[in-house]
Amino acid sequence: MTHEKLKSLLPAYALDALEGAELRALLAHLQGGCASCERSLAQYRRVAEGLLLSVAERSPRPELKAALMARVTEKAPAALRASFWTWPLQQWRPLAAGFAALALLLWMWSGQGWMLRRPVSAPALPAAPSPQAKPAVEIAAGRPGHVQLADLNRRAHARRSALARAHASLPELALRSGSLTQGGLAVAPGGPLAWGPGLFTGKDGAEIVVDRRAVLLLKPYTQVNLSLQKAQVFADLDHGTLFTAVVPGTAFSVRSAGASVDAHGTMFLVSRVASNRVYVCICRGKIDVHAPGLDHEMAAATDAQEAGLTLTLAPGGAYAQAAQAVNYAREEEAVGEAMKDMPGAEPVGTGNN
Amino acid sequence: MSNDESASLLVAIARRRDLPSFEGLYDRHHRLVYGVACRILGDGHEAEDILQEVFLRVWQRAETYDPARGSAATWLCVLTRSRCLDRLRQKGRRREQSMEPGQLEVHAPSGRNCADPSRDRLLADALNRLPDEQRAAVETVYFKGLTQAETAKHLRVPLGTIKGRLRLAMDKLARTLGVGRDES
Questions:
Q1: Are A208 and A189 in contact, with CB atoms under 8 Å apart?
Q2: How far is B47 from chain A (nearest CA, A)?
Q3: Contact (CB<8Å) A60/B51
């Protein structure tokens, strides 16, 4: 397909209306790094976004706002507790002063009561807190004139310890090459990456290595979030193209737009090319694609049996078919280099499988 | 700047789950989000569901907003469109909208939601000036989530004709944005 022909596909691509062979050809062209087409595509995308911004505003029922705020505040306590523990020191000071004043009042009040009631020889015992009047944060009375925020400190320490233990057991996550941002902040090449919330945005072919078990190659402007659930790594692809290679035996899934790709020791590409389409291509091994209720552009699907909501793509012939449509040899070579020292990784040759 | 303010609100939501910021963002953008949802779904009740879904998503995942990729209003609109199209597909329908093709409802943006009001006003004017058949092609593709082939079938015209109309329309609109950029 000529460059002019490919360029003529850009308007439809920006509107998410391209499909089939045209879509695959254009994707391959864009992934080849055509700067002219990238510029044009950016402009067409702004047009498409402008279409949405140009829609007439309408007012919903006013009571919806109250309902929404109620739903949000239902979820708020956990979030607020989390932020409470992570307040900076200067924000603790007024709170601590308030607790101190409250505790002083309690101590003065209860102390006077003890003095009136107890025998002089009896040991001083702290007053048992009334269940009805139990404060949100327990305040333990210590020596007169001292206030111990014992429970508060203990819980904060326990939480920090739990976090430290959790981080110590997390798999290592590192940026091998290229550049990216995490949560909008640039990450130094070669540096460690943090687990947790924060979208990774690839800039120029960033390669993320997960615990010497998997390599993720992010095409420019690809956004992905990584998480761990029951020892399985999940890569949630928000937008763009992700080329993944995993060591056999590694539990790894790529999820995007309701689709899920489970790996079983493979190399594969997942691309969210439009809001409603996920493109999957096997390069090596076997993958399971679960795609309920969505349209999918499947490369190399000639021997795949679409059974219900699950597509299982087999190796071998599938890759041969894929190679005719799009050649990912360059990506295979790049991740193969990254994986060559990984224990259990299969060597990457120049041929298929 | 309006967009900067919205981006700041999103940052506050992402970092602190700040309720006042969330409320401010809702007050600023909910009419646009609801308008987009109504435009795609053609049903006010479903659009209200989407409105809530979108803002709940904002509350839970505000950190996924990337200012480098566009304004907060654009992000909300794209999110809304995606949710609406998912909703349409889940129901297995390509609903006929109450509005006929060629009647793309556009307005001159107020500026409250726009990163660049003058540019979006240019785009709105350009949309209004498009020939009906080109507007219908763009609208069917983008607001109903149909492919070119599906659009050709829907509008009962040859596939090649739809491709040509989309190209012509998008080129005109892109040129409009290009003029806007040069003038700014």
A1: no
A2: 9
A3: yes
Out of A179-188, A317-326, B71-80, least confident range: A317-326
- The continuous run of DSSP H or E covering A282 comes out as strand A277-284
Mean pLDDT across the stretch A21-43?
86
Q: How confident is the model at residue B80 (pLDDT cuts 50, 70, 90)?
A: very high
Write the CA distances from A42 to A11, B70, B104, B116, integer angstroms: 10, 11, 23, 16
Q: Which residue of B has its CA nearest to A12?
A: B166
Which amino acid, residue A17? A
As given in the structure block, the two tokens for residue A182 are 């995490």
Amino acid at B138: V
What predicted TM-score, i.e. pTM, was given to this entire model?
A: 0.49
CA distance B131 to A132: 73
Contact list, A65 vs chain B (CB under 8 Å): 23, 26, 30
Q: Which one-letter amino acid corresponds to residue B135?
A: R
pLDDT score of A282: 66
DSSP state at residue B79: H
For residue range A269-304, list pLDDT tens digits in order.
Answer: 777 655 556 666 666 666 666 655 444 444 333 333
Residues of A in contact with B58 (CB under 8 A): none
Q: Which residues of B touch A294 (CB under 8 A)?
A: 89
**Token pair recorded at residue A273:** 């090319």
Tell me which of A94 and A3 has the higher pLDDT. A3
**Is B31 touching A (CB cutoff 8 A)?**
yes
Across the interface, of A48, A61, A68, the residue whose CB is closest to B26 is A68
Shortest alpha-carbon distance between residue B69 and chain A (Å): 9
- ipTM for the whole complex: 0.83
Q: How confident is the model at residue B51 (pLDDT cuts 50, 70, 90)?
A: very high
Is residue B93 very low, low, confident or very high in pLDDT (cuts 50, 70, 90)? Answer: low
Q: Show residues of chain A in contact with B134, CB under 8 Å.
A: none
Give the distance from CA B13 to its chain's centroid. Answer: 23
Six-digit token pair at A160? 């920090």
Least Cα separation, residue A295 to chain B (angstroms) = 9
* Cα A32 to Cα A30: distance, rounded to the nearest angstrom: 5
Give Cα B77 to chain centroid, integer Å.
Answer: 5
Q: β-pairing, A267-274 with A252-256?
A: unpaired
| Ramachandran region, residue B70 (left: φ > 0; alpha: ψ -120 to 50; beta: rest) | left
For tokens 């944060």, the residue is: A137
Closest residue to B36, CB basis, from A52, A67, A184: A52
